[in-house]
């Protein structure tokens, strides 16, 4: 893989360098995610791949690119941004705690978009981008092309559209580049944060959408989660495991806990070289309800037709 990281990222991972051990056997890593990639960030070398070149919807992982183009525009971070009707999610009907007229600084909107995956915050950032949302999405696609993300396309700044697609290989490039932005590293790894909403003065608390950030067992330098029905549950991370930096990309995970369980399996495999067995579903009735959906998605994946499956379920992250 062509090395795309600038000096900033190289310095970041070099601070955690150690003597490279024998690479664990990829055959011993069993993951539930449909698409996965693990990269030794120090050498920029893939050490595990599963359908890593397959194009798939990426949900709120999109927000990493939204954040990069917003920061590239060098707009004032303390400038106020107001939520309006154009930020309402009419596509998926997802919930937001930011009501009409809620006003925060650009900095706080960016923090909530990255930390808590707030869709209205991401939408408002794109609306206030020079030229508006259309210009912001165009900038996202230009930056993807500049980074060599040849199988990536963005249709909106939130990730709610299933037309936001990429591959695990492309998203590894996204993670590596996003890690060169200090605010993106800071905001994606903030466990929780409270903001005072203007003009009401009401204070709201938000949690990080990635439960691993809120624990103490992981050393995470950057992360982003995502979920829509067409994409499954996704997570991308730059992490230190045994004092060594790795990029982990897990896409299209079925079930509420699979992406986190897969991340734990990757960590265990890197630390020990051994397999952490795939667990059994916690609730059998949930699996039965969704089996038809899973089968349909796998049929679509093997078909020559687009695999975007229509659904009426609400969107979560």
Explain what this protein looks like in three dimensions.
There is one protein chain. The chain is an alpha+beta fold and 317 residues long. It has a single domain (7-302), classed as DD-peptidase/beta-lactamase superfamily (Beta-lactamase, 3-Layer(aba) Sandwich). Helices cover 33% and strands 20% of the residues. It is built from 9 helices and 11 strands.
Q: Poorly predicted ranges (pLDDT <50, ≥5 residues)?
A: 14-20, 281-316
**Count of separate structural domains:** 1
Class computed from helices, strands and strand pairing: alpha+beta
Name of the CATH architecture:
3-Layer(aba) Sandwich
Task: Produce a short descriptive summary.
The protein is an alpha+beta fold and 317 residues long. It is built from nine helices and eleven strands. It has helices at residues 7-14, 63-72, 106-115, 119-127, 132-146, 168-178, 182-188, 258-272, 284-302; strands at residues 35-40, 45-50, 56-57, 80-82, 103-105, 165-166, 192-197, 202-207, 219-228, 232-241, 244-253.
Features:
single chain, 317 residues, five-stranded antiparallel beta sheet, two-stranded antiparallel sheet, 9 helices, 33% helix, 20% strand
Sequence-ordered SSE layout with sheet pairings:
Layout: H1 7-14, E1 35-40, E2 45-50, E3 56-57, H2 63-72, E4 80-82, E5 103-105, H3 106-115, H4 119-127, H5 132-146, E6 165-166, H6 168-178, H7 182-188, E7 192-197, E8 202-207, E9 219-228, E10 232-241, E11 244-253, H8 258-272, H9 284-302
Antiparallel strand pairs: 1-2, 1-11, 3-6, 4-5, 7-8, 9-10, 10-11
